[in-house]
Write a structure and sequence with these properties.
The chain has a single domain, classed as YVTN repeat-like/Quinoprotein amine dehydrogenase (Methylamine Dehydrogenase, Chain H). Helix content is about 0%, strand content about 50%. It contains no helices and 30 strands. The strands form 8 sheets. The chain has a 4-stranded antiparallel β-sheet, with no helix packed on it. Strands 2-3-4-5 form a 4-stranded antiparallel β-sheet, with no helix packed on it. A hairpin with an 8-residue loop joins strand 12 and strand 13. One of its GO terms (cellular component) is cytoplasm. Keywords: Cell cycle, Cell division, Cytoplasm, Mitosis, Nucleus, Repeat, Transport, WD repeat. It holds the Pfam family WD40. Belongs to the WD repeat rae1 family.
């Protein structure tokens, strides 16, 4: 039975709680912290949203023109889901889990099959659509990057990483992987994946998230934004025209005590607007912010939510911004409040993300 034609819901709709920006709440959110959000590709007539969670489940909703959401289906792993991605045609969703496997969920048949295996939890997963091949790239805490043809059990390629994979992004023909010990490796994906360069990290603390950005004129990948646990983002061009092109900026920080001390929070996720080229960051300070990297200015910061923001994404048209609020364990067990449930919100995202008129 195709989930595209079904209307079966799961769970109950959570009551509106701590919706600081009065945005549209997604129906039947996950039961535990949200690790990833991904909208369906622009090749599809309808818009769907998937969310992976620490409750071991991946859920799918249809997002209607009104912004209202209809729960469609869910699939499960034997451990928390850490990452997800769509196939280029929108018929399949790929999931990476702490159970050391990755799965491919066929949305037409509503069946999920295992397509990858690692020796440790899989932290990242990306579908790669190249002119002469297509595959799924998985990055794991077993210090390997593997590439899978979904029709066979063994990987078609495996690359040894210097450390555990913590974050990655793909925009063909480029992939960037961030590892433990602040490693950064750029790969070119044409013909077959090959290491292109290793980059000395512009950030002094552990990498948490990264997102590749494209050239506004050619739409070719030209660099990436990297977020760390120290409330800082680096903008890094692979081939900068000037040394000044690469820079870092502080974010997700707040003035704390009267001694002028500053509270510093993790940047949990970064997303680039598909048409404006501006970006969103979400953090452990319970806020999201929108930025214009070219003008080097902040466009907007949200009100403070009652929980950290753990994941975000823009839909293909750039008119909806999805973000999740859930506990990220940044304050340990003492900071956990079982009364606070995860939420996913949808916000009109086009006008807020328009580039600044300021020049850098």
């Amino acid at each position: 039975m195709s989930i595209f034609g079904s209307n079966n819901s799961f769970g109950s709709t959570a009551s509106t709680n701590a919706n600081a920006m009065k945005d549209i709440e997604v129906a039947s959110p996950p039961d535990d912290s949200v690790s990833c959000l991904k909208f369906s590709p622009g090749t599809m007539a309808q818009t769907f949203l998937v969310a992976g969670s620490w409750d071991n489940n991946i859920r799918c909703w249809e997002v209607q023109q009104t912004g209202q959401t209809v729960p469609k289906a869910q699939q499960t792993h034997q451990g928390p889901i850490l990452a997800c991605d769509w196939s280029d045609d929108g018929t399949k969703v790929f999931t990476a889990s702490c159970d050391k496997t990755a799965k491919m969920w066929d949305l037409n048949s509503n069946q999920a099959i295992q397509i990858a295996q690692h020796d440790a939890p899989i932290k990242t997963i990306h579908h790669i659509k190249a002119p002469n091949y297509s595959c799924v790239m998985t990055g794991s805490w077993d210090k390997t990057l593997k590439f899978w043809d979904t029709r066979q059990a063994a990987p078609i390629d495996s690359i040894q990483l210097p450390e555990r994979c913590y974050c990655a992004d793909v925009k063909y023909p480029m992939a960037v992987v961030g590892t433990a010990e602040r490693g950064l490796i750029v790969y070119q994906l044409e013909n077959r994946p090959q290491e292109f360069s290793r980059i000395e990290s512009p950030l002094k603390f552990q990498h948490r998230c990264l997102s590749i950005f494209a050239d506004k004129k050619t739409n070719a990948p030209t660099g990436f934004a990297l977020g760390s646990i120290e409330g800082r983002v680096a903008i890094h061009y692979i081939n900068p025209t000037s040394p000044k092109d690469n820079f870092t900026f502080k974010c997700h920080r707040s003035n704390g005590t009267t001694q002028g001390m500053q509270d510093i929070y993790t940047v949990n996720d970064i997303g680039f607007h598909p048409t404006h080229g501006t970006l969103a960051t979400v953090g452990s300070d319970c806020r999201f912010s929108f930025w214009d990297k070219d003008a080097r200015t902040k466009l907007k910061t949200s009100e403070q939510f009652d929980q950290p923001l753990t994941a975000c994404d823009f839909n293909a048209q750039g008119n909806v911004f999805a973000y999740a609020t859930s506990y990220d364990w940044s304050k340990g067990h003492e900071g956990f409040d079982p009364q606070k449930k995860p939420h996913i919100f949808l916000r009109p995202g086009f006008d807020d993300l328009k580039p600044s008129m300021k020049k850098s």
